[in-house]
Amino acid sequence: MELFEALLTRRSKRDFEDKPVPKETIDKILAASLRAPSWANSQPWEIAVSTGKTSEFIKKRIYKLASEDDPGNPDFPMPVSSVSWPDKQNANMFEMGKLLYESLDILRDDVAKRKEIALYNYNFFGSQTAVFIYMDEKLGHYSILDSGMLIQNILLAAHDLGLGACPQAYLVAYPDELREIFNLPESKKFLLGISIGFYKKDSAANNIKTSRVELRDAVKYYD
């Protein structure tokens, strides 16, 4: 797959087959992704990959907490809808939610079904594999930006190999659980989780197409 094709066709997948991704494939994705640029080549990111029994253990722990309406204690503020977003971004998010729920035939007032879909996040959307990105607490905003470039590489590399992936803030809503499971010190702070795997090609959730801002509306040239 050519780079521009990958950029134009990648979409987040939210429904996976219950089958493992070979370690060699994950290694190939991450080895290429680690070529991401960073401030002064600081390479601030750290990566934990959960598979098999570890993934099942994580799912059970965080699903239970979420299903009991535990708000969690994320290391970085969650991008929740209750925040006062600017109108433009709020409209984009509203469109995303509308398309997702309509594709699944979930009505706006169906609170139970909406919660069920939200909780599916904590099951890695059915995948057996998740990639967790974290960094040391001494690092700052530029290191978060650098880690974002690593994450984009992971998403594009997975797409290139025919896999689906979805970046999820939900997966790091309970970082104390993750630190305990991965045997990490308190100084390691979780940025994001990425569910990755073989996606269900006929799933409605995997075939929604959100709009993107037009070039003319996003870019201003100053001659």
Task: Produce a short descriptive summary.
With 223 residues, the protein is an alpha+beta fold.
Structure report:
It is a single chain. The protein has a domain of 150 residues: NADH Oxidase, CATH 3.40.109. 42% of the residues lie in helices and 13% in strands. A four-stranded antiparallel beta sheet has the order 1-2-4-3, with helices on both faces. Helix 2 packs across helix 6. The longest helix has 20 residues. The model has no long low-confidence stretch (mean pLDDT 96).
Content-based structural category? alpha+beta
- Overall residue-averaged pLDDT value: 96
Helix content: 40-55%
The CATH class of the domain at 11-77 and 122-204? Alpha Beta
Number of helices: 8
What would CATH call the architecture of the domain at 11-77 and 122-204? Answer: 3-Layer(aba) Sandwich
Shape: globular
CATH fold-level topology of the domain at 11-77 and 122-204: NADH Oxidase
Percentage of residues in DSSP E strands: 5-15%
**Spatial gap, N to C terminus:** 35 Å
Radius of gyration: 18 Å
**Describe the biggest sheet?**
4 strands, antiparallel
Strands side by side in the biggest sheet: 1-2-4-3
Count the beta strands.
Answer: 4
User: How do the SSEs run, as a string of H and E?
Assistant: HHEHHHEHEHEH
